[in-house]
Write a structure and sequence with these properties.
By secondary structure, this protein is α/β, with parallel strands linked by helices. Helices cover 21% and strands 34% of the residues. Helix 3 links the parallel strand 5 (95-103) and strand 6. The chain binds inosinic acid and magnesium ion. Inosinic acid is lined by residues 45, 70, 77, 100-109, 153-155, 159.
Amino acid sequence: MARDRKHLKVLIRNRDIQKRVRQVAREISRDFRGERVHLVGVLKGACIFLSDLIRHINLDVSLDFMSVASYGKGSKTSGEVKLIKDLDTTIEGLNVIVVEDILDTGITLTYLYNVLQQRKPKVLKIAALLDKPERRIKDIHPDYVGFQIPNEFVVGYGLDYAERYRNLKDVCILMQADAP
Ligand code: IMP
Ligand code: MG
């Protein structure tokens, strides 16, 4: 519908994303040299980042997924998080890296971090493709980060607005089209 029109402005090109994802994978490979890492992808937004990242990690890697819902649709979060899908296997004693699309207020990752920490992993780290530090209300920092971005709502490369735009190759700023 014309009334639903939105503008997309490229913020990070796919070529730059790919380059940075390879660097992050190299950092992880170096930090855990000789060890196994267990990646925990946070559905659904992190799936594209995760699938590129994992192919550049030069270690023994295993993979699992979790899904959480933060109440509120579209671009607003209400602050409550609920576990929708839990891990398939135990993480006790493993080097766990939670892979997330974006660290915004930090509510989601703080919740996940606490849930996973209780299960006694050997190490628990966070890898986020994007970090919006201006919006942070929880004291949580990613150990690996692709890009710090300004306080804009972004879509693409896995990130959505009401489930749309995940398939865009670039990370784009979503702007409301000017009236009329
Ligand atoms: P937080 O709990 O506020 O840190 O938000 C984390 C979740 O909100 C992310 O996993 C995304 O699903 C969503 N989110 C936050 N900012 C954006 C954005 O700019 N675009 C798309 N999703 C976002
Ligand atoms: Mg998400």
